[in-house]
Amino acid sequence: MTQETQREEGAKKEITAANVFPVLLTAVVAWVYTWIVVSSQVVLPPPALTPIEEPPSTSPGEGLTNIAPYLNTMIFIGFVAVGGIIVYLLTRRFPKSIKYLAAALFGLSGFSILYLYGFMLMDLFHVSVAQLNNQLLLPFSVLLAGLLVAMLWSKWGVLRVISASLVGAGVGVYLGASMPLWTTLVIIVGISLYDVVAVYKGPLGRLAQLDLLTVRGLVVDFMDVFVGLGDIVFYSMLIAFSYWQLDRVIRASAVPLAGIAATAGILVGFGITLLALKRGGAAPGLPASLIIGLCLALLTILL
């Protein structure tokens, strides 16, 4: 979900190219995380939200006719939908308390991401994790996660975007590098469709009518535009998926053509989303970016 901040008409700011900065930074951070995963050669376990095992296959005829990707997508999107309803109800009923819950969830996610990628970095540079785990990595992750939460409430928009990108991109790259090929493909299409419904007819659209500043940690605001943390997660997931699966597995190449194409598509799609915001209100942040990015990434397979 993407929304322009509600202001008095006379004080309303124009949407400009600078509003692309949160997504541009997200793409850069996502590539850094992707490099860490690829370089460390760590095999990440798939998330619990995709429990149905998918038979390994690079053939669309086999992969897309199997029921596993669709069941995983239903479970995944069902969890997202229930979470959206809960957040909306809590924000409506407990507007003063929800910000603490949002900050806590953001901090916990930040700690998990910092610990995970810190672990991979230490392994990559052959640092003994067993010795430094409790002495350095664990407390460092806790302290840095606290700093990210503080940055999220900074008066400077750039710091808020940096904080959200570090956490959201980390989650997205984990998903894109760990989920099976066809499950990820179906989820990208499915979550794009769900985003349209959720914004125009569901809880995200109603949430956008409330004070979004109370749910910082689930959204980030920059130059009068709110971007959902979920949008950041899925943009990053597409980038990691495009390189991890389409480039390295389907194309069998270390040249990241699909990843670059997906990144370009995400930026173009977000530009289209910003144009939609000029009409006022909220706009789904996923469909244009994910579909354009995915189509461009898939086209590279033909090259």
* Share in helix: 55-70%
Secondary-structure element string: EHHHHHHHHEEHHEH
Largest sheet: 4 strands, antiparallel
How many domain regions? 1
Approximate shape: globular
Class by SSE composition: mainly alpha
Rg over CA atoms, rounded to whole Å, is 19 Å
- How many E strands? 4
Are there runs of 5+ residues with pLDDT below 50, and where?
A: 6-12
Strand numbers in spatial order across the main sheet: 2-3-1-4
Number of helices: 11
Described by its quaternary structure, the protein is single chain
Roughly how many Å apart are the termini?
A: 33 Å
Give the percentage of residues in beta strands: under 5%
Chain-averaged pLDDT = 89
Secondary-structure blueprint:
Elements: E1 2-4, H1 21-40, H2 60-63, H3 68-93, H4 98-124, H5 129-152, H6 157-178, H7 181-200, H8 203-207, E2 219-222, E3 225-228, H9 229-250, H10 257-277, E4 282-283, H11 287-299
Antiparallel strand pairs: 1-3, 1-4, 2-3
Describe the model:
By secondary structure, the protein is mainly alpha-helical. The chain has one domain (16-50, 62-302). The longest helix is centred in the middle third of the chain and has 27 residues, at 98-124. Helix content is 67%, strand content 4%. Helix 4 (98-124) packs across helix 6. The model is unreliable at 6-12 (pLDDT under 50). The two termini are 33 Å apart. A four-stranded antiparallel sheet has the order 2-3-1-4. It has helices spanning 21-40, 60-63, 68-93, 98-124, 129-152, 157-178, 181-200, 203-207, 229-250, 257-277, 287-299; strands spanning 2-4, 219-222, 225-228, 282-283.
